Every structure is written in structure tokens, then in C-alpha cells.
Structure prediction request, 359 residues.
Amino acid sequence: MKDFIYTGTQSRVIFGSGTLAELPAEAERLGARRILVLTTPQQREQGDALVELLDGRAVGSFDQATMHTPVEITNRAISVASERDVDATVAIGGGSTIGLGKALSLHANLPQIAIPTTYAGSEMTPYLGQSEGGRKTTLRDDRVRPKTVIYDVDLTLSLPVQMSIVSGLNAVAHAMEALYARDGNPVISLMAEEGIRALGQALPALKHDSSSLEGRSDALYGAWLCSTCLSAAGMSLHHKLCHAIGGAYNLPHAETHSIILPHAAAYNASATPDAMARIARALGRTDADGAAALATLTSSIGAPSALRDFGMPEAGIREIARLTVENPYWNPRPIDEVSIRALIARAWSGNPPDATAYT
Ligand code: NAD
Prediction:
């Protein structure tokens, strides 16, 4: 075993069915008396219901959370928070809404209770992505971590099946990269393997029946584990490619992750045999071919496969390869522009991953 450093997570986690009922008690625990509830426009009604549930502890809701946390939206929310003398936020939604709560923690010193309703996994991490003038930057700061995370399986029942699939694969990507991260550790590897196992069972089940409470529960449990992995171990080629593509062409976050996942796995497989064996085991394969297991999973559940279907221009293949190599994240296998271009070209056109094409 190699040497390692392990830092425990600092958020309180409440997981189950019907756990939303714990929200008033959790607000009391934090001493919050003037809460601003955060949502996207699509989840406004859920926000209004939380204001009622908080029974006098909420001063209202702010329903403009947007993908990639645009700075102008954050500034608008800060003005509302300051006018209403807010002392905490409750974010109900996916990574976009929790991202806004994180921005308010950082810029307005407001503690957050996060109630995730997708599998994206922002809630456990110290990362905050923000966009301004078409540019996205990501920072790492422990102050942005939510104080409490309430996972209520019931709230995920309304997540459309295709969104569930891409969001779940977004989570799997966090675990995959944690398994081969330079700063990984044995505890996080256990969580990563278990997270992939749970999602590997849940996503096909949800594809078949998106109202399955067992499938929903497994998926959210897996998402929590994968989110914890992202918080504890570094990101590599997969996340670099997704950040570059999302930032340059504003492609949808979860869809981009699910398209890139099998390609990044195939690219890194030869340099990460232990990680691939764990992924294969988690996904029930008898051999150690984790990259093949991920390719089978993504295609069998009908995950999107072509970046061009989401508006990435063909010229982006060259551009993203350049950006990836110019300012790389650490990666277990060395990267070069020609190989990365070949990888992106396959992901752009929807061709299956092929490790031999990247050499
Ligand atoms: P999202 O938060 O943008 O949600 C997508 C849409 O689904 C929204 O309209 C939302 O209101 C809706 N929705 C969410 N839950 C729903 C439910 N249960 N039922 C019906 N509709 C629901 O999407 P996302 O993929 O969760 O998050 C993407 C964002 O999160 C990106 O900005 C990404 O950068 C960020 N993110 C950050 C981290 C981090 O660690 N900082 C990690 C993952 C993602």
C-alpha cells in the first residue's frame, strides 16, 4: 500500500426517504432565523413549499439559480440577502442551485443547508465554478462546503429519466477519477467502488422504471459516495475535458460528462490497471476491463454519445485538444495533442471509445 493523507468530510449528512421533514430541526441546529431559499425557476414551487415548511424561519425565496453560477446572478442574490437581513440559505436543486448557495457562502458569509435533487454531487465538495463574461473559473475553498446536506430520495422521483442517467454518469466520473488520483487513499477508493456499484445497479433499474424507490435510493446513495470522492481526490483528464468543453461551448454539464466518461476511461486504462479492475468488479464483470464495463453501461442505458448533438462545432475538436494540453490537469497517462484530438473526435461524432485510436 502507498502512503496517503485522509481528511474526513466536514458536512453533516442526513439520508433517507422523507428526510426533508428534518429541515426545520436542522435550521434550528444552525441557529438560522432568517433563511433565503434558493431554487432554479423550474423548481420555484418546491422553494415556496420549503418557505412554508420553515414556518417563520424563512424570509422568502430566490428562484434564479443558473448553470455555471453566473456572477451577475450571485450579485443579485447577495442584494436580496442583504435587503432581507438573511443569515443562512437553503438550496434545493441540482449543482446549479447548490453552486449559488456556495457563492453566497463565499461572498456573503452565509452558511448553507443543501438539499440535492440530482446526482451531480456539488454538495460535498469544496469546489465552486463561477462564470463571468463567457469565462468559467473554478476555485477550491473549504468555506463553500454546505454545513448540512439533506438527501431525501423522494425529491429525486421527479428527475426525468434521461436527466437521471446523465446525472448518474456524472457521479460515476467523479469516482473513476478518484480511483486513479495521485492523492487518492484507501478509504476514498472503497467509497468510489461502492458508489460505482450502487449507480451501476440503479441506472439500468431507473431506465426501466424511474419511479422505483429502491433504484432512486441506490442512485442517491451512490451520488453521495461519488460526491465525497470528488471532494477528497484530485481530478484528471476526464474533468479537464468536460470543463474545457463546457466552458468553451456552454454544453450541458451532465450530458458532456456522460459522453466523455467511456473515452477518458479507455484513454487512461493502460496506466490504471488497479482502478479499472475495481470498476469492472463494481459493474459485475468477470474480467478486469473497467473501460469496457463503462462503455457497456453507458450504451446499454441509452446515454448520449455525440458532443455534436449538443452544439459543439467540429472546429472544437482541435481547439479543446489544444486547451487540454496547454493547461493540463495531472493525469495518470501522459497526454499529447494528437491523442487527445483523436479521443475528442470520436466523442464528437459518437463513435465508441477505442484505446488503440489514442496512441
Ligand atoms: P442543474 O442543477 O442545472 O439542474 C438541471 C435542471 O434540472 C434544472 O432546471 C433543475 O431545476 C432541474 N431539476 C433538478 N432536480 C430536479 C428534480 N428532482 N426534478 C425535476 N427537475 C429537477 O444540473 P446539475 O447537473 O445537477 O448541475 C450542473 C451544475 O453543477 C453545473 O454548473 C456544474 O458546474 C455544477 N457542479 C459543480 C460541482 C462542484 O463540485 N462544484 C459538481 C458537480 C456539478
Observations:
- The chain has a mean pLDDT of 96.
- The first strand starts at residue 12 and ends at 16.
- The chain has two domains: 12-156, 161-357.
